[in-house]
TrEMBL record:
PANTHER family: NUCLEOTIDE KINASE
Principal localisation: mitochondrion
Lineage: Eukaryota, Metazoa, Chordata, Craniata, Vertebrata
Residues that coordinate or bind AMP: S38, R43, Q64, L65, I66, G91, F92, P93, R94, Q98, R161, R172
Protein name: GTP:AMP phosphotransferase AK3, mitochondrial
Subunit note: Monomer.
Length: 228
């Protein structure tokens, strides 16, 4: 009957370092849907010094979540503009009240959960070491220094930024887990949670792709891009 396929309402979830950014951009490349990231939305508001932006900054600067009512209003207003499109929501909902508020306005079809072991993420996120005086950056996985812990040119010791230290990364992962586990459970109970487990984005991606293909046509022109 209808010429147009039903619109997809999807959410993507995954801890920092899970490859969520990469997977989201690949999804957008292949499928006709709009990507709405709550973090991008907030950063845009902060740059434009909107009322929400000014308030949001005070929370973000303290490393805290934006209160549910502000966040929900902001995102739901934006989604209203995307009513006639399929969309992929990224970074929202982060709490159960946000998920409940979202449910009141639309039915979520699927929640893509990138389930990457914390150990793998920790390895990835703590792989960066820098030489403080020159700013040279090394990555233990992709471009390690010739001698472990030492700058190639000066031979001086390398250091980790506070953000990249294992204890900081562990804290970030723990706080993600504490916040979002209830949201994952919420969607699991509703039967819309689809978890993709793995340690490498390039191995997880084909499964995400195949899954979404059952819901939306691939509109990308370049077949070779399928694996990327
Ligand atoms: P992100 O880029 O998704 O990591 O978001 C950056 C920051 O914006 C987060 O650390 C939070 O402070 C805030 N934020 C983004 N999305 C939400 C949300 N759904 N609920 C509350 N705070 C959020």
């Amino acid at each position: 009957m209808g010429v147009r396929a039903r619109l997809l309402r999807a959410v993507i979830m995954g801890p920092p370092g899970s490859g969520k950014g990469t997977v989201s951009s690949r999804i957008v490349k292949h499928f006709a849907l709009k990507h709405l990231s709550s973090g991008d939305l907030l950063r845009d508001n902060m740059q434009r010094h909107t009322g929400v932006g000014v308030v949001a900054k005070t929370y973000i600067d303290r490393g805290q979540l934006i209160p549910d009512d502000i966040m929900t209003q902001l995102v739901l207003r934006e989604l209203k503009n995307l009513e006639q499109y399929s969309w992929l929501l990224d970074g929202f909902p982060r709490t159960v009240p946000q998920a409940e508020a979202l449910d009141k306005t639309c039915q979520i079809d699927t929640v893509i959960d990138l389930d990457v072991p914390f150990e793998t993420i920790k390895q990835r996120l703590t792989a960066r070491w820098i030489h403080p005086t020159s700013g040279r950056v090394y990555n233990l996985e992709f471009n390690p220094p010739k001698i472990h812990g030492t700058d190639d040119i000066t031979g001086e010791p390398l250091v980790q930024r506070d953000d990249d230290k294992p204890e900081t990364v562990t804290k970030r992962l723990q706080s993600y887990e504490a916040q979002t586990k209830p949201v994952l459970d919420y969607y699991r109970k509703k039967g819309v949670l689809k978890s993709f487990s793995g340690t490498e984005t390039n191995k997880i991606w084909p499964h995400v792709y195949a899954f979404l293909q059952t819901k939306l046509p691939d509109v990308s022109q370049n077949e070779a891009a399928m694996q990327r």
